[in-house]
Amino acid sequence: MTRRIAPLPHRHVLTLPAKPAAVRTARETTQQLLAEWGISPHHPTVDAALLILSELVTNSVRHAASVSPSLTVSYAAGHDTLVFAVHDRHPYQPSLRTTTGTDTGNKGLATVVELTSSLAGSAVVRQDGDGGGKSICITLPL
Fold it and tell me: Is the pTM for the entire model greater than 0.85?
């Protein structure tokens, strides 16, 4: 028997052009949403979440823009959980398990994995059903 998890009460979806300005817009939108949802900017998870989000959006802009002219950030939050995902239509599926800080091409993902792990969160890559894109999903406890 599978236990059903109640949907998180707060949700938002943001679609942006895959351009450098997307990083700032995503961060500012996140800060605004968290405030609206009653999550203090001083909560110990917030700064790390903003850095993780910035790294993921930066990666989409740098590595996927030629194939994916836009990216989508999905947010959800509840009393004790913050979830966000960055989606693009580039088919490359990065491995989050083998990412290390010594691989100069993956320093951003290494930061994502390290911060997520340090907060007892999880990071997952989800491939689109047609194989033509992916979402990197982050779940963090609040």
Answer: yes
CA 84 to chain centre: 5
Structure-block tokens of residue 104: 């100069």
Give the span between the Cα atoms of 87 and 71, in whole angstroms.
Answer: 6
Give pLDDT tens digits along the chain (142 positions).
444 555 899 999 999 999 999 999 999 999 999 999 999 999 999 999 999 999 999 999 999 999 999 999 999 999 899 999 999 999 999 988 754 545 555 677 999 999 999 999 999 999 999 999 999 999 999 9
- The neighbour count for residue 58, using CB atoms within 10 Å, is 16
3-state secondary structure of 135: strand
Q: Where are the beta strands (DSSP E) in the chain?
A: 10-17, 70-77, 81-88, 122-127, 134-141
Nearest one of 124, 126, 141 to 49, comparing CA atoms: 141
* Tally of residues, the chain: 142
CA distance 127 to 125: 7
How many angstroms separate the first and last alpha carbons of the chain?
28
